[in-house]
Write a structure and sequence with these properties.
By secondary structure, chain A is of the alpha/beta class. Helices cover 43% and strands 20% of the residues of chain A. Chain B is mainly alpha-helical. Classes of the chains: A alpha/beta, B mainly alpha. At the A-B interface, helix 2, strand 7, helix 7, helix 8 and helix 9 of A face helix 1, helix 9 and helix 10 of B.
């Protein structure tokens, strides 16, 4: 072999080693589109902060495959067109390994299409409502839901809770249902109505309040006049706050059961109303879980000022991301990550009371558990009203 | 019945407080101030910030109102004054831009998080169902009283005070008023200040009764329909306009389909403007100018 041939071989081997090293150091790019600003940002922006915080800690402690995780975060302001553009840019231009969507349901369609077209996994996180595409049997192969909220299971829990509590209190349940006049909220309340009718509950009224309503007191008066003693809602917590205040100002003494949100715990602490509860599938900080200490420590270390209870959803999505990347292993690409997600099992350290499990046919937590949190005036703190109640996803 | 009347009275009072600002600025400068709802939000946040800083209700309220007045004067002095002489639509576009800037600034400074000023003034202790068979809360009663006082004061000022007469003169004949020595910019700046003060008062009541978020600016649009129905330049038309809009909204919510409640005021505007394009108490001359 000539001297030139030897030199060529050595150069090729050296180049290979350099390439391998470069690949190992190359960050794993994960795309995020979220409602960071805009009208609905208060529910979603803290979740993005939670995810960022988790990834910062992960990078510090040693990310999977010793490759840094780089989050590319784009703001969609909760607007469908922006979310679609963000998804396209993240998947096609930024070549992200996977995407997280932390925004309103109106933004889903465009992002889902980009994910499907490019065979890229998309994970809905935090306050993003789990859509029908993640439920079995017709699961969208590329869409997963790690978020708190799903309309059907919440109806299956909230309505029987109201019935049970009313019976325990010796009340004749007269139920009112409130939605915000947006599709997903109406769907949630329609499902509650179905459950209520199936259980023979006396449904006194069901209303959808426009998001632009100046004053909800006339709606409150409507429920008072019809004698509702329980009102259950599947709507943003801002509507629940307005409704509770309006009802109380009319002297209504019934129980108001609202949907949880990123800042629900803070809202309960602020309003201090023992008969205003929120149903939730994730733990509030009153549970004193060690993971909350971990979150608090991380927030302190990285100078994040957001309240930790508001970041829980983002932290969970960080846990999911880490578990998926570890399972995917070295040389992880979109196809392998997709395979990893299809059999993922994540212990969220109590943030969700049941493990987060996805299978090929079900991209939502297969077994959810719910409880109700409310203010306890005697103890002067938020508390869980009953043990976690499992609800099977159908 | 008491509840229905109370709801209409409360909502109409809110629209009177807010709508008076539209009327005042329009009378003085012939400009539709579409930033009014945003200036209301800014005033409410000013109030909340002072409350959160521990200033107490007695200090926070007047301070927020003074702050709002200064903001209103500054908006005129820095932005609107230079547009005098341009067609009115230029001014209207400028107020849209101001509204967007204020909205963005509010989101950046205070974030999009929902706030609860009522919780900072001992909401739990407030006898919220104090009077009128539980239909009118203490806060509602305060809103109605303030709206009546503000409206009465404004009507008196416009009719009897030198400033009010100057405002009317500017609205009717700006050139003649200037030739007679009326300091037009000063008078219009004051009308912007008073208008923003009223918006802040409305914002304080709204945020205390309900909640505070950057999105409450939309209440300004509902109040605009009340002013439009009454006749934009007519203070006398504001009250019937506000009562009509409030009644339409409240009755639809309570007895009809609440989904339609936000659309009904705009339907009312269409009907009124179809029959009387200058509004219930407006004049033909104003329509030509618009």
């Amino acid at each position: 072999m000539t001297r030139t041939a030897w030199s060529g071989r050595i150069a090729a081997v050296a180049l290979g080693v350099v390439c391998a090293c470069l690949h190992a150091q190359e960050p794993i790019r994960i795309g995020v589109t979220g409602a960071i600003t805009g009208p609905v940002s208060s529910s979603y922006s803290p979740q993005v902060d939670g995810l960022r915080l988790y990834v910062q800690q992960l990078n510090e402690n040693g990310a999977p495959g010793k490759r840094r995780i780089e989050l590319i975060v784009l703001d969609d302001q909760g607007q469908p067109a922006r979310a679609a553009t963000n998804a396209k840019r993240l998947i096609e231009d930024e070549k992200v390994l996977a995407m997280q969507l932390i925004s309103v349901s109106a933004t889903y369609a465009g992002a889902f299409k980009s994910a499907r077209d490019n065979r890229t996994s998309l994970i809905l996180s935090g306050m993003s409502v789990c859509p029908s595409q993640v439920f079995p049997p017709n699961t969208d192969p590329y869409v997963y839901c790690a978020g708190f909220i799903a309309t059907g299971p919440e109806a299956q829990y909230a309505i029987p809770f109201a019935k049970r509590r009313a019976r325990e209190a010796g009340q004749d349940l007269k139920l009112g249902l409130v939605a915000m006049d947006v599709p997903v909220s109406r769907q949630g309340v329609d499902e509650m109505e179905q459950v209520a009718r199936a259980q023979g509950i006396n449904l006194v009224d069901k209303v959808a309040v426009p998001p632009t309503a100046t004053d909800v007191k006339p709606v409150a008066a409507r429920f008072v006049q019809r004698g509702a003693n329980w009102i259950v809602t599947w709507a943003p917590i801002s509507l629940s706050i307005q409704m509770v205040k309006a009802l109380r100002s009319l002297g209504w003494d019934g129980f108001y059961l609202g949907a949880s949100s990123a800042d629900a715990e803070q809202v309960l602490q602020t309003l201090k109303d023992p008969k205003f509860g929120v149903y939730a599938s994730h733990a509030f900080t009153v549970e004193s879980l060690p993971v909350f200490k971990e979150m608090r420590a991380a927030a302190g270390r990285f100078g994040v000022k957001e309240r930790i209870e508001n970041m829980t959803g983002g932290w969970i999505s960080g846990m999911v991301l880490e578990a998926a990347l570890r399972k995917c292993g070295v040389g992880c690409d979109r196809a392998r990550l997709h395979e990893a997600l299809d059999g993922l099992n994540v212990d969220t350290k109590g943030l969700y009371p049941t493990p987060l499990e996805w299978t090929k046919n079900s991209h939502i937590r297969s077994r959810l558990a719910y409880t109700v949190y409310a203010w306890n005036a005697q103890k002067g703190q938020v508390e869980r009203l009953e043990p976690w109640t499992p609800v099977d996803v159908k | 019945m008491a509840i229905v009347l109370a709801n209409i009275a409360t909502l109409a009072s809110l629209y009177v407080l807010l709508g008076a600002g539209y009327v005042l600025v329009y009378r003085a400068s012939r400009i539709l101030n579409l930033a009014h709802g945003d200036l209301m939000t800014l005033g409410a946040y000013g109030f909340f910030t002072l409350l959160a800083a521990g200033a107490g209700l007695a200090w926070s309220t007047p301070s927020a109102l003074v702050f709002a007045t200064v903001v209103g004067i500054a908006v005129y002095a820095l932005c609107m004054r230079s547009l005098v002489g341009y067609p009115p639509f230029v001014g209207v576009l400028a107020t849209i831009a101001i509204g967007i800037i204020v909205r963005a600034a509010v989101s950046v400074i205070w974030t999009g998080r929902t706030q609860h000023p009522a919780s900072l003034i001992g909401e739990a202790e407030l006898p919220l169902a104090a009077s009128w068979g539980g239909a009118l809360s203490l806060m509602d009663a305060g809103l109605v009283a303030v709206a009546i006082a503000a409206y009465g004061g404004l009507a008196f000022m416009l009719r009897r005070s030198k400033l009010g007469i100057q405002m009317r003169a500017i609205a009717e004949q700006p050139l003649l008023a200037a030739q007679l020595g009326v300091r037009i910019h000063r008078v219009v700046a004051v009308s912007w200040g008073i208008s923003t003060l009223l918006a802040a008062a409305a914002g304080i009541f709204y945020s205390t009764r309900s909640l505070l978020s950057p999105e409450i600016w939309m209440v300004g649009l509902a109040a605009f329909t009340a002013a439009l129905i009454g006749g934009l330049g007519s203070l006398a038309g504001l009250v019937p306009g506000a009562i009509l809009v409030a009644a339409a909204e409240a009755l639809t919510m309570q007895f009809g389909d609440p989904t339609l409640s936000s659309a009904v005021p705009y339907l009312l505007v269409l009907v009124v403007l179809w029959v009387r394009p200058w509004g219930l108490f407006g004049t033909r001359e104003e329509v030509e100018r618009v």
